[in-house]
Design brief:
single chain; Rossmann fold; Ribosomal Protein S5, domain 2; 7-stranded mixed β-sheet; 10 helices; 21 strands; binds thymidine-5'-diphosphate; binds magnesium ion
């Protein structure tokens, strides 16, 4: 294998240097130099041989290539399988990222345990001792009263951080699935930088990918998202791996969302919903119901949005609270929606609807720790705020769908019928949606559809009369 060397590349202009510099000498950008590992002497003929699939390449006819349908290893945790697009693809490498403490190790140990009932799984930890992992496994496996404990047949555990040793363990034990917990603890001794540095993280992941592709072993790699070091975190790995999953959630809330942001073998933006419990992560099979469980109906400041998370519609409660402010710049505090979305919505409420928000602090909260990125939730956010300000509740049996535009118009969003179907399924009787400009497929039956052209009209329909 060629010798490796470290270089520093400007992320803005691509200039490469041997030493790090605070300012790029080529484009003048500050703090743009990022450490990178390359082979010191690329083989003649260019870099095409760098870390590709093993062996020599040769073009073949499509019909000669085996693999009609990908065979997948069954993954018995449905919410996880849904995010992957089915079972685990052999030879694939999957990154599972998330904040420290969010539940990555717990979830992956559950996956390892369940899959080890059929195939051999090797769980490599650089974070915990084998004993600690065993104790966690026992906690996850604790059987219901009176039932026998059922340990998985073929789960192997090892604590190791040297990637050379890890590769050797993989060759020796020949598992079908490997879990690396975490990529930040793994290091290659031949690189000078320390474990967790960008070059170590990137190079280790590349080696693991090479191994996965050449052996057909599926590899799951856990990566911490670090506040200061997005650079050495999962972001730098996104282009190396086949699939990127993020585990998200509010550390103070039980719900966890597993979201695919990249998937070579399935749809992206798909989500699985879990709840962190005493015995690990439990699948939430009806998330909309769970998110609405604690809702107080007929209380001002609460509205129901329907967001699409991948192909799945989710009903969530958006809460708004306005309260007289003593500040020159009253607070705008969103939790679960983008601050810029909230600023836009409060500006529209103020300028287009004459809402007196200038002397009010405004708080918005999405219940359940969910983060809604979709503008389709704008109407629910606006209604929650307006409802609190006017002290009038939103109709309890009504969901709100639509994007709010700068002129106060209600703008159409995608997949309205899928959203309506989910709302109807949960017993909602009405939905306020943007007025349709073109005739499309008929509205979903079983729910009264109230079309509104503007935010004003929508609020008239949604807020109960005083
Ligand atoms: P962990 O999986 O260690 O997080 P990560 O690997 O992402 O850093 O999860 C840590 C938290 O989960 C910890 O605060 C304890 C909690 N937990 C439970 O609530 N129930 C359980 O069954 C387990 C194993 C952990
Ligand atoms: Mg962990």
């Amino acid at each position: 294998m060629a010798k490796l060397q470290t270089r520093y590349v400007c992320q803005a202009c691509g200039k490469a240097l041997a030493r790090p510099m605070g300012r790029c000498p080529a484009c003048g950008g500050w703090d743009t130099m990022v450490e990178e590992v390359v082979e010191a002497a690329p083989p003649a003929g260019g870099k095409s041989t760098r870390r590709g699939l093993s062996g020599r390449s040769a073009p073949r006819r499509l019909a000669e290539i085996e693999g009609d349908v990908e065979a997948r290893l069954p993954l018995p945790i449905g919410e996880f399988a849904r995010v992957l697009g089915g079972g685990v693809v052999p030879g694939s490498i999957v990154l599972v990222g998330g904040d420290p403490g969010i539940g990555k190790s717990t979830l992956m140990l559950q996956v390892a345990i369940e899959m080890a009932r059929d195939i051999r799984v090797l769980y490599v930890s650089g974070e915990e001792s084998e004993r600690q992992i065993k104790m966690r496994a026992m906690r996850l496996l604790r059987p219901p009263e009176g039932q026998p404990l059922s340990l998985p047949d073929d789960l192997l555990l090892v604590t190791e951080t040297n990637l050379g040793e890890i590769m050797q363990h993989i060759r020796d034990t020949a598992p079908a699935l490997v879990v690396i917990d975490s990529i930040q603890t793994v290091y290659l001794p031949e690189l000078e930088s320390s474990a967790g540095s960008i070059s170590q993280v990137r190079e280790s992941a590349s080696r693991l990918r090479e191994l996965a592709k050449s052996s057909g072993i599926a590899v799951f790699v856990i990566g911490h998202v670090t506040k200061e070091g997005i650079i050495a975190g999962p972001r730098v790995l996104e282009h190396i791996v086949d699939t990127v999953l993020y585990l998200e959630g509010d550390a103070f809330q039980a719900f966890r969302l597993l979201r695919s942001v990249k998937n070579r073998f399935g749809a992206t933006a798909e989500v699985g919903v879990f709840e962190m419990q005493e015995r690990g992560m439990a699948e939430v099979l009806n998330p909309s119901e769970a998110f609405l469980a604690e809702r107080l109906v007929n209380t001002p400041g609460s509205a129901i949005a329907v967001t699409m998370e991948g192909t799945r519609p989710l009903l969530v409660e958006v809460q708004g609270l306005t309260s007289p402010s003593s500040l020159n710049n009253p607070r705008r505090t969103p939790n679960g929606v983008d601050i810029n979305r909230l600023l836009l919505i409060t500006a529209v409420l103020t300028r287009r609807l004459g809402a007196r928000l200038a002397e009010q602090d405004v708080f918005v909260n999405v219940v359940g720790g969910l983060h809604i990125a979709e503008p389709a939730a704008d109407l629910a956010v606006a209604a929650a705020v307006a409802s609190s300000l006017r002290d009038r509740a939103v109709r309890a049996d009504c969901v709100l769908i639509g994007e709010v535009g700068l002129s106060g118009e209600l703008r159409s969003v995608g997949q309205v019928n899928a959203r309506l179907r989910e709302a109807a399924k949960l017993g909602f009787r009405a939905a306020v949606v943007p007025r349709r400009l073109r005739q499309g497929e008929p509205w979903q039956p079983g729910i009264e559809v109230l079309e509104a052209r503007s935010l004003t009209e929508a609020l008239d329909l949604a807020l109960v009369k005083a």
